[in-house]
Amino acid sequence: MRANDGRMGGGFGVAGWAPASDETERFIVRTYNHLFGAIALFALIQIGLFTSGLAYPIARLFMGGVSWMVVLGGFMIVGWLASRAAHSSLSRPAQYAALFAFVVAEALIFTPMMVIADAVAPGAIQSAALVTFAGFAGLTGIAFWTRKDFSFLGALLKWGMILALIAVVASVIFGFQLGTLFSVAMVGLSGAAVLYDTSNIIHHFPRDRHVAAALELFSSVAMMFWYVLRLFISSRD
To answer: Is the dihedral of CA 183, 128, 150, 217 positive or negative?
Structure first.
């Protein structure tokens, strides 16, 4: 769905904005409510895993005899599957099921990183969360303030993810480490993904699919948090 023009009624009367229809406003509010709900569920799962002690055997299961880079590759594949689900699922219950399953999967994939951060870089989780929130808020503000259509980033993101996955596979095969520059590049790529997703939410996403839109945006925010946290860990390791 394309951006609404100035002839449409509704709010968001901020400089740089075109007034939005009531339908668009409701869609955006529902999308971000579901996004924050997904983030809260992710945090509750992590808290539950650590307080119950399950985080440590899960981390050993993920990392026992498996390269850490395989976990990174799994993270990108899960993100890609989430994006596919967001665009293809028409049923509302299926969208909720995909959102719930994806949040649980991400929480499990994050567990080894969280355990490492808790052990070698106390406070890194909170710092990474704050940096991620600031980055997300800034990029969201840019998308809403300018009302620019950032759909042109789609091809860049697709190629960037493919190249990143190739780098991960190569690191596993040839035994080299993906260092700080890779993490910085992935933070930039995830920032572009947030901008792209937010633009799609404003301009193109079907107005009856707020759950799917929230799932796709959560995937990008989670990827940003992952690599920001990785940078904090590497800086203190």
So the answer is: positive
